[in-house]
Amino acid sequence: MEASHDTRQRIISAAQELIYARSYNEVGVQEICDHANVKKGSFYHFFPSKRDLALAVLDQSQMYMCDEIINKAFHHDIPPLARIERFFNTLYAFHKQSKEISGRVSGCPFGNLGGEMSTQDEDIRSKVDSILKASEKPFEKALTAAIERGDLQAVDTAATAKAIFAYTEGIMLYAKTSNDPELIHELGKRALQLAVPVNKQ
């Protein structure tokens, strides 16, 4: 008999794949069940609602992003500013491979869901908001380390990290609407310009 954990995980993974490829509102519970090869009864055993499933999908997507992109990019084996550059290279490689498989650039799963649902569901909005804010922290740490090393002039690291991550979200939206992962590669090279202090006259 299949373990309950495996059934729950299949439902989450099916929803993650379908919602990321299309949208939250376009994908129904029955389609998710069919994709996961489970009965609706199993779905509602684990998730009282589709929203509860969406929150679990966000948790899983965050774990994947941390494991496959953030942690690899911001490993301390290279100087801090180079880690930010590596982040964009890693992001580009992910979306390039994704397009080779699916034929499309799907953008940021958090930005996609947040943009679609933030005015419709407070729990989803709050979850996406917390994930995006947490995603700024590795940039802030890298900028702080770069200042300590003398690689960067003093800047407001929290505000600059927020600006770089907001820029990242914009790049992914631009790449999605253009269906062109090369934009991530090209525009990512300019991200560190946001960390250059403004000269006050």
Topology:
Blueprint (H helix, E strand, L loop, with lengths): L3 H18 L7 H8 L3 H7 L3 H24 L6 H23 L6 H9 L4 H28 L7 H22 L3 H7 L13
Helix pairs in contact: 1-2, 1-4, 4-5, 4-7, 5-7, 5-9, 6-7, 7-8, 8-9
Protein model, in words:
By secondary structure, the protein is mostly helical. The chain folds into two domains: 48 residues, Orthogonal Bundle (Arc Repressor Mutant, subunit A); 138 residues, Tetracycline Repressor, domain 2 (Orthogonal Bundle), CATH 1.10.357.10. 73% of the residues lie in helices and 0% in strands. It is built from nine helices and no strands. Helix 1 crosses helix 2 and helix 5 packs across helix 7. The longest helix is centred in the C-terminal third of the chain and has 28 residues. The chain is elongated. The relative contact order is 0.11.
Q: What is this structure, in a nutshell?
A:
By secondary structure, the protein is mainly α. It has 9 helices and no strands.
Q: What is the CATH homology-level superfamily of the largest domain? A: Tetracycline Repressor, domain 2
Helix content class = over 70%
- H/E series: HHHHHHHHH
> What's the overall geometry?
elongated
Sheet bearing the most strands, described? Answer: none
Q: Helix- and strand-based class?
A: mainly alpha
Low-confidence stretches: none
Query: How many β strands by DSSP?
Result: 0
Class of the largest domain in CATH?
Mainly Alpha
Distance between the termini: 72 Å
Q: How many helices does DSSP assign?
A: 9
Our Rg estimate from Cα atoms comes to 19 Å
Tally of individual domains: 2
Mean pLDDT: 94
> What's the CATH architecture of the largest domain?
Orthogonal Bundle
CATH topology of the largest domain: Tetracycline Repressor, domain 2
Strand-residue fraction?
A: under 5%
